[in-house]
Design goal:
Elements: H1 13-47, H2 60-78, H3 84-108, H4 115-141, H5 146-175, H6 179-201
């Protein structure tokens, strides 16, 4: 523990310059780092159903960042199952669908002022949830014994249920509606997203 009487040896040469540079970097980035940590913590709280989209700042920059991260994570998940071009196209279509359906729901309830925060929450939480699923998909891809495959299937179903719960929570809070309404709308969105992906990118499997 440092006290007022603590004495430091004065560094010299390269070490002194390096320490000054690192101190300057810490001073300049500390507020941004703290703010980013609080934002990430808030997204986690939403994923745990402990916070709501209105707890996020209404920031166009944060919205674009959340959409970008969601798109990049979508590419990361899809690249193992299809070509890079298809993965990028699928991610773009998914972002457009999420943005469009979110606007449509809020417009129908005359709550478009909540659009930025709602879409930020949906995109940011979707990216976090997708990152949680990525190790499972890699595990599934590289295979394993029968018990491992069953465990992966169980964990994927739990993850899918968790995603439904998170999206339902966000939508119900944004629309000021009961939770089951948010769940119905979430399942509808996921069904539409699935059908669009199947139609555009997996026609040969239909």
């Amino acid at each position: 523990m440092l006290t007022a009487g603590t004495v430091f040896h004065k560094p010299t040469g390269f070490v002194a310059k390096h320490n000054r540079v690192m101190m300057l970097i810490c001073v300049l980035t500390y507020p941004q780092t703290t703010e980013m940590y609080l934002l990430i913590k808030r997204f986690f709280s939403i994923c745990l159903l402990r916070a709501s989209p209105q707890d996020l700042p209404s920031s166009s920059f944060l919205l674009l960042l959340a959409l970008l991260l969601n798109g990049l994570v979508g590419i990361l998940l899809a690249i193992n199952q299809t070509t890079f071009f298809n993965a990028v196209a699928m991610s773009i279509v998914d972002v457009i669908l999420l943005s469009g359906l979110c606007w449509l729901l809020l417009w129908a309830r005359v709550l478009t002022l909540r659009y930025t925060q709602t879409l930020t929450a949906l995109a940011g939480c979707s990216a976090m949830l997708a990152l949680c699923a990525w190790p499972l998909l890699l595990w599934q891809q590289y295979g394993g014994n029968e018990a491992g495959i069953k465990l992966i299937a169980l964990l994927m179903w739990l993850w899918f249920f968790w995603q439904i719960m998170v999206f339902s929570h966000i939508i119900s809070q944004a629309l000021s509606s009961p939770f089951f309404i948010g769940m119905l709308l979430t399942i509808t969105y996921m069904f539409i997203s699935y059908r669009v992906a199947q139609t555009l990118f997996y026609q040969e499997s239909l």
